[in-house]
Amino acid sequence: MRVVQAARSALEINRLVVATDHEKVRASVEASGGEVLMTSPDHPSGSDRCAEVLQSFEAQGQLFDLVANIQGDEPFLPGEAMDKAIQILKEHPTCQVATLAVPLTAGDREDPHVVKLRATPDGVAEAFGREPDWEPTHTHVGFYVFRRDYLMRFVDLPQSESEKRERLEQLRILDDGVEIRVAAGAWPVLGVDTPEDLELARKKYKNRFEAEV
């Protein structure tokens, strides 16, 4: 619900749906007045889950040009950052996918749980990886915006070898020869991927609340 609350502040998002295969998630979102769609438990990625939601909407005659995949493990990602990625596709008509990044810290560089990326000065992603022994420029944030047609193509593509090796779905896009543009900013992100991340996130929220009070 922290992620939902942040997404509700994004000016570029006009339909917000939590896609899940977990009853506890559904119950939590509905209790807070959010919209939920139950999806297959067999999806290999969040993008595949988004595609199922899109197909469900289209079957009801509801059409969307852009689809944002907001991952539920990024509770500190602000709506303004989401807007930046969506605006990229509006500003670059030939671009099919956009994502987000923040400045790379020494700790992030050494942490294999943290995904790094290298981007050109004009914001085009060149590479993604987890290991520290290369030349990344940013820490990657797990947020994607797809054009509708490319999302449907993407989920039909087989996993690429680099994707399997790194366990990163965005490498399937690069291996497909498709450009990913990156919006970078100093947003207060913290991806919750491990129990240690969860404890750090709880402390961060506690400190933020005490500072606001």
User: What is the beta-strand fraction?
Assistant: 15-25%
What integer value in Å does the Rg equal? 17 Å
The total domain count is: 1
Please state the second-level CATH architecture.
Alpha-Beta Complex
Provide the structure class. alpha/beta
CATH homologous superfamily label: Spore Coat Polysaccharide Biosynthesis Protein SpsA, Chain A
Compute the average pLDDT: 93
Overall helicity: 25-40%
pLDDT under 50 segments (min length 5)? Answer: none
CATH top level assignment: Alpha Beta
Total of helices: 9
Q: Report the principal-axis shape.
A: globular
N-to-C CA distance: 21 Å
- Give the number of DSSP strands: 8
How is the biggest beta sheet arranged? 6 strands, mixed
From N to C, what is the helix and strand string? HEHEHEHEHEEEHHHEH
Report what the structure shows.
- This protein has 213 residues and is α/β, with parallel strands linked by helices.
- It has one domain (46-212): Alpha-Beta Complex (Spore Coat Polysaccharide Biosynthesis Protein SpsA, Chain A), CATH 3.90.550.10.
- It contains nine helices and eight strands.
- The strands form two sheets. Strands 3, 4, 5, 6, 7 and 8 form a six-stranded mixed sheet that branches. The protein has a two-stranded parallel sheet with strand order 1-2.
- The radius of gyration is 17 Å and the shape is globular.
- The mean pLDDT is 93.
